[in-house]
Amino acid sequence: MAKKKIKMTRERGHRQRASGKLIEMGKEVVSDIEKVHPPKLKMPSRSTSNIIYDEAHRYFVLGPRYGLRSAGSMKQVKKFAQLLCTADFAKELIERGKFATLREMYYTAEGWDAGPFSDQGESDLIIEDLEATCGLKREDLGLTPEEDGAAVFGKLVVNEDGVVIDATKAGRAGYTIPPTIDDVEFLKCKAKRVIAIETMGMYHRFVQEQAWKKFDALVVGLKGQAARATRRFLKRAHDELGLPVYLFTDGDPFGFHIAMVVISGSAKLAYINHELAVPDAQFLGVTASDIIDYKLPTDKLRELDVARLKQLLKDPRYNTKFWQSEIKKMLELGKKAEQQAFSKYGLAYVVKEYLPAKLGLKS
Amino acid sequence: MKTMAEELFKEFREHSVSEFFRKNAAMLGYTGKIRSLTTIVHEGVTNSIDAAEETGVLPKISVMIKRVNDEPEHFRIVVEDNASGIPREYIPNVFGKMLAGTKLHRYMQSRGQQGIGVSGSVMFGQITSGKPATVTTSTGKGEIVRADVMIDVDRNEGKILNEEKFKGKWQGTRVEIEAKGVSYMRSRYGPFNYLRMTAISNPHVHITFVEPDGTLTVFENATDKVPERPKPMPLHPWGIMSDDLLILAKHTKGRNVVNFLSAELSRVSKRKAEEVCKLADVPPNKKPSQLTWEEAERIVSAFKQVKLYAPPTSGLRPIGAADIESGMRQILNPEFVYAINRPPKVYRGGLPFIVEVGVAYGGSAGKMTEGKGENEEGETGMELIRFANRAPLIFDQGGCAITTAMRSIDWRRYGVDSATAPLTLFVNVASAYVPYTSAGKQSIADEPEVLDEVRTAIMEAARELRRFLYRKIKTKERQERAGVFEKYLPIIAQKAARLAGVKEPDIKPLLKKVAGVENGEEEN
After folding, report:
1. In this predicted complex, what is the ipTM?
2. Is residue A66 part of a domain?
């Protein structure tokens, strides 16, 4: 896979910051070597016992425990060397304004003296180490996942590498959120809210029914579990553009969780949730109450669904009155419903009736 | 327990020797195609070593096994030594008369066990191939005799068929025997392993071996000191059986039973002999040659009721730890070798024995075949080699007390994976009264004291092995550790310098410091 040719058009400071952190790390190590101390790097422990739900921020964060990676340890010196190789690689990417995918990075390591990695899992872990050590997202280090983010449609104009794109004029599919969304500049936004939708089917329905216009919304398709880039986009839309974010997913435990990961982040990415989570995002539905209120066509809960719902009940992120009652209600019902279930009342119903009611915007 | 020699001695007067031989071939070691061949080699080599030692020269033995006419089970076995040679007139008796050896009535810790000796091999060759044995010998006086010897089975006499004499400066004896129905293999039971084991337990012996395919192996001697010969010793009553007694009675010069017992047996005074006669209800002045089997039995059991001094331990001839070590070092070329020689112990209330144990690790230890042929290469695993009075015990391994002792030990406790370790364990039991399980004399009986002593001795040697293995692991770890740091620390220095945009720091002081220290911190 060829590296994406991207000319940096705008430095929002995040890459400068990343570069600075890497230089700092190098200096620390050099200084240790000069003092004849085995270089050590402090990194927050990412083990499950150190992942804590932060009630105040309403997302998972890493606890106070730190691990030391020491170049004086026989077990760790190789990983230490690989970490520095990765850092060096990242710094070069940053300086050249380039990106590499995790996969490319894995193959690049084949040529390293400290490499190669035995599999991509190992190389990904080193990247996570680097993220955690520096408190930086991999995207800031010039490393991106394979997949793009999802799509956005609405009154938003962005500058992506000097190309000005209007998200209403980017074709039916809308503007594709790139993995490197942090390099994209928001030029103009006339929307008043963001509505993020689980399925691309419903996203296209919203575009067709011109929901973006009707609700002054940026309609975002999540494509199931939201990619980092999509979450980052939602986070930036909320923080930089000051837009409220609404989530519309299937009425089942997996839909709930897609919404919750946007809101409160995942445990696995606890070390980076402050860059990803949108704790103020609001879940619209489909709720268990909606199933009853709208008499939606349903499917029976499978065994897996029931188990998952019970799990969610105990999850700290769902420890609110709203979620507890909705989950219990769904368990009582024994039923679940998809977003598309509203089609029972006609294709446009969801946009004409359901959404306005949920948003409190009865026309 | 009956020993072979006595059996033989009784029997041969009544039956023809060949009949006897056929009947008892198995007990004499002539059973199975591989074992028969090994036995022929064994008899020849034992004779040669004994002869050279008696001559007072360092034994130099060469053994050659050749295929005859490309037939698969037809071989010519040649054993040559550098001993005194045999005067012409003794040739028929030495090679052609069964049971004529000098060892029959000497009770000593002897290497030759069957007593039947080389004439048994001549007999075996004769009845399988129909060919006489060829003996070439010279006493070193310029004349060499070559003679074909056959056994006249009816008269139990050696017959010289062809004979030639020629001039030449050489001393020694060369015996060639042709045998059919035997096969050659480099297995644990084959001649190769027999010679290898012999070389280990007899570090003063130089052995040259040529296999049927022409492969030449030289087992160099590791020392040039001829060990002290065991002294013939009278038997002790605790170690004899009725038939031993009867055989002794036939040859004694004592004119009555009391004289006979006190003269022929160890630790028996006239008074004790009289006491025993009384207990056994045997007339003290009876002619020894007229003792009956029943009387002999009663005498043997009467000896158990009287108080006797235990046999003297002075006759014990262990190999010695130093010689075991040099033998193993020479043949196995190991990384580590250690041998111990324990003080004498007794079993059955007083029969003395000594256990010696050696361990060798690395080199060709644990590799019996020294990688001949592709399949055998690199196959290692713990190997037990057993000896009784220096003589290799090759067969009946499973039933042997030494094997039982070795298996009863948890080898992992000594850092040994018995399935793969390049380890040879050497055990020698030295005694004039080795408690063999059977007349084949290939395994040692589970006498509790013997078993216990062997076990203790093995563990003592294994403890030293454990220390060695531990050091070895430590050294290896240190080297690995240094290697890891030498590889990665310079990378760290280089990359860190690049990140920081500064000159690369000198990594050597840190390398020196770190490569020796213990583990760094783990996650807290």
Report:
1. 0.76
2. yes
